[in-house]
Design goal:
The chain is an alpha/beta fold. It has 14 helices and 9 strands.
Length: about 425
């Protein structure tokens, strides 16, 4: 569920080295001083957006963007002291309103398998998207690397664990506020939430926790949750595997095993040889990417392999049958504990995804969540389907290519990670502009 769209490299200074960290300070407190990475000029942002095709959605940058690395205290899913890293993007420069008090967007990124990836890198496609779409338009943005990634010393990542995702993002807001005062970037006090894919689940989890636990501290004025897997337990019962199952489900199983301790007693009852060897510590990986996990044989996959084939090669048949049919299976119960279908937001909220998404199917997640909200009487939630825009921009003759069309494979492979993120984020910014 990582954003894979290509963006032109932007020259950047090397991240300042920072060391150490402890868990004895308060949650959200900075471990190291904010690390100045670089300042992207409007010319750099416009050039990068133009070369990537993002400019038609983001518009012309009106502010330079200061990129600041964060390293802060937080807690793990079992209450253990931990830490996380991330980035703060703040508008600056001579443009109108670029030095005014800015609303703060807390953003949650899509799934990553490479442990060392950090959002404090302006050449990262998702970071550049945030810079061009939001910070260059007068928003401040904070984006965490999550537990277990970047500079975090937690030995695992609690993937799609709702409460720890929320804790990490709440503490990123606290860290961003502290850093903003140090670097001279005034904030208005208005906070917005968004995230894509895993980040959609994370931002909705955070939305729930903020309104429940810290409403007096953090004023959430609007949220836009994008292509998130809100219906995790329901997704287990879907017969056909989703694209990327060989990455996402091991992250989920292994993360829940770390958090709950009861998903399996013998890992060989879950995974088949040869992939079972080392899989409990495979993800996130310090060196391997989505591509090299497959090419080195650590996980199944490849351009000619279907998601169902990947699932069949990787997982024990009895395990798949059990989680699809037994609601009391520990994995099914863990997924249900992290569903978000019962959360009814108080602040205005937008949901966005495409009905052709093969990775986080809209019919399984967004549509089911919106139906639950409708039953609960929610009147402040908007649901958007960007599939028509994707077909018009990337289809064949303005329509999705047929499975027999040579373009079909690229279209399907690019839908969730390349085509949809910029379009949903453009929808999100238009929505946020009403509340800034």
């Amino acid at each position: 569920m990582r954003l894979m769209f290509a963006l032109a490299p932007i020259a950047a200074a090397v991240l300042l080295a920072a060391c150490g960290g402890s868990d004895d300070a308060g949650r959200g407190s900075l471990i190291d001083p904010p690390a100045a990475v670089t300042t992207l000029t409007t010319a750099q942002i416009n050039a990068g957006a133009a070369s990537s095709g993002l400019a038609s959605l983001s518009g012309q940058a009106r502010c330079d963007v200061r990129v600041t690395g964060l390293y802060y205290n937080t807690t793990g899913p079992k209450g253990e002291g931990s830490n996380a890293s991330g980035v703060l993007l703040t508008p600056t420069g001579t443009g109108a309103g670029c030095n005014a008090a800015a609303p703060l967007l807390a953003y949650a990124r899509g799934t990553e398998v490479l442990k060392t990836r950090t959002m404090a890198n302006p050449q990262d496609g998702e970071t550049f998207l945030l810079a061009a779409m939001y910070a260059a338009q007068g928003y401040a943005v904070v984006a965490t690397d999550y537990l277990g990634y970047g500079r975090s010393t937690l030995s695992y990542h609690p993937y799609l664990h709702a409460e720890s995702q929320a804790t990490t993002i709440i503490d990123s807001v606290r860290a961003a506020r502290a850093a903003a005062s140090i670097v001279g970037a005034p904030l208005s006090g208005r906070v917005m939430l968004s995230g894509y894919s895993q980040g959609g689940h994370a931002s909705a989890s955070t939305h729930r926790a903020m309104e429940r636990d810290v409403a007096g501290e953090i004023n959430v004025v609007a949220a836009a949750h994008l292509a998130g897997p809100y219906n995790l337990s329901g997704s287990l019962r879907v017969p056909d595997a989703v694209a990327g199952i060989q990455f996402f489900v091991p992250l989920l199983i292994n993360g829940y095993q770390q958090v709950y301790g009861n998903i399996y007693s013998d890992v060989r009852t879950v995974y088949k040889a040869p992939y079972v060897d080392g899989i409990e510590t495979l993800l996130p990986n310090p060196t391997l990417t989505y591509t090299t996990l497959v090419t080195t044989g650590k996980l199944p996959g490849g351009p000619t392999q279907t998601p169902n084939q990947s699932r069949s090669l990787l997982f024990q048949d009895a395990f798949i049958t059990a989680i699809q049919t037994d609601a009391n299976h520990p994995f099914a119960r863990a997924a249900q504990a992290n569903d978000l279908l019962a959360f009814v937001p108080r602040s205005p909220t937008m949901l966005c995804s495409g009905s052709g998404d093969p990775t986080v199917p809209k019919a399984v997640h967004q549509d089911v969540y919106k139906a639950a909200l409708d039953r609960a009487g929610a009147t402040n939630v908007t649901s958007i389907d960007i599939d028509p825009a994707i077909q018009a921009a990337f289809g064949v003759g303005g329509r999705a290519p047929a499975p027999t069309d040579p373009a079909f494979g690229t279209y399907i492979a690019s839908y969730h990670g390349t085509y949809a993120p910029p379009i949903c984020n453009a929808q999100a910014r238009a929505f946020f502009d009403r509340f800034r």
